[in-house]
Amino acid sequence: MAGKATAQQKKRQQVWAWTLTAGILVVAVVIGVNSGDSDTSVPAPVADERSGTVPILRTAADSQGICYGWELLDVYDEVSVGSNLGDGTSVIDAPGCTRWIAVSATVRYTPSSSESEDSATIRIKGSDDIEFTDLAAIETRLGRFGLDEEAFVDDPGWAVTRAATILPLLAAERGLAEPAATPTAGPSAEAAPLPDAGNDFWRDRWVYVLSSVGLFLLAALFLAVGVRQRRRHRGRVPAQRAGAGAAGRTRSRR
User: Fold this and answer.
1) Residue 122 bridge partners (DSSP)
2) In what order do the strands lie in the sheet with 77-83?
3) What pLDDT, on the 0 to 100 scale, is given for residue 185?
4) Which residues pair with residue 251 across a beta bridge?
5) Angle between helices 200-253 and 2-34 (to 10 degrees)
6) Which ranges does the record mark as transmembrane (predicted)?
7) How many CA atoms lie within 13 A of 131 on its CB side?
8) How far apart are CA 37 and CA 54, in angstroms?
9) Which of 98, 122, 149, 243 is the least buried, fewest Cβ under 10 Å from its Cβ?
10) What is the C-alpha to C-alpha distance for residues 127 and 114, in angstroms, rounded to an integer?
C-alpha cells in the first residue's frame, strides 16, 4: 500500500511539474507577442528637429533659388513632410517653387518575431529641370555624412531632417546653384535630451529568455523530487531489514 501511494504521489508531482512548465511557456509567448517590440510604426521627427530644419532650408532657398524639403513615409503612409515653406508643407509641386529638391525616405519596420529585417529606401527627388544624374549623385553622397540605410532605420526622424539640411551643400557641389549663405541662428531654448532607446537584446529575445527560465525551473523541480524520493527510500530500507531480523529470531526460538 505504501509503495502504491508513493507511486501515485510521484505521478501527481510530475503532472504538476509539466503543468507549471507549460504555463510558464504560454506566459512567455503571450508576453513576447504582446510586448511593445511588436510596434512597427515609424516615428516622426521631433518638434526640435522640424523647427530647426525649416529656417535652414528657407535661408538656402532664398540664397540659391531652389526649394528644399523632406518627406518620411511608413511604407505607404505619410509620417512627416516639410520644406523651406514650413513644417507640414511639401515642396513637391508647391506654388512658387518651380525648381526644387527633396529627400524622400520610406522606412519599413517588421515585428521582432518576423524573419524579415527592418529596411529603408532613400530617394532624392527634383523638379523636371534637374537631371536624373545630378539627383542620383546627391543621393549617393549622403553616405559621406553617415546618412545611409542603417541611419534611417535607427532614427528616421533625425536622418530625414538631417539629410534635408545637407541638400543645399550637395546641390552646390553638383553646380546646380551657388553655395548657400550661412544661416544665422538666434538664441533658442536648449533641446531636451532624447529618451533612452533601450537595449535591443531584450527586443529580440523575450521569448527565448523566459522559455529558458521555465526549463531551468522544471529541471530544478525534477531534481528536488528525485532527491526527496531517494532519501525516503534510504530511510525505509533499514526498517524493513530490522523487522525481517526480528522475525528470523522468533522462528529460531520456536
Assistant:
1) 105
2) 86-87, 77-83, 67-74, 100-108, 119-126
3) 45
4) none
5) 180
6) 15-33, 206-227
7) 6
8) 32
9) 243
10) 38
User: Rounded to 5 degrees, what are φ and ψ at 208?
Assistant: -65, -40
Residue 133: all three cell numbers together: 544624374
> Residue 112 in contact with residue 36, Cβ under 8 Å?
no
Question: Could you tell me how many residues make up the chain?
Answer: 254
Residue with the larger pLDDT of the pair 183 and 179: 179
Q: Helix, strand, coil proportions of the chain in percent (round to 5)?
A: 55, 15, 30
Q: Model pTM greater than 0.90?
A: no
- Enumerate residues 6+ apart whose C-beta is below 8 A from 211: 24, 25, 28
The string of DSSP codes covering 147-196 is -SHHHHHH-HHHHHHHHHHHHHHHHHHTTSSPPPPPPPPPP-PPPPPPPP
% of the chain at pLDDT higher than 90: 48
Residue type at position 78: E
Smallest CA-to-CA distance from 206 within 29, 12, 13 is with 29
**Proportion of the chain above pLDDT 70, given as a percent:** 56
Would you tell me how many other CB atoms lie within 10 Å of the CB of residue 196? 6
**Widest CA span in the chain:** 126
CB-CB contact of 208 with 22 (8 Å) = no
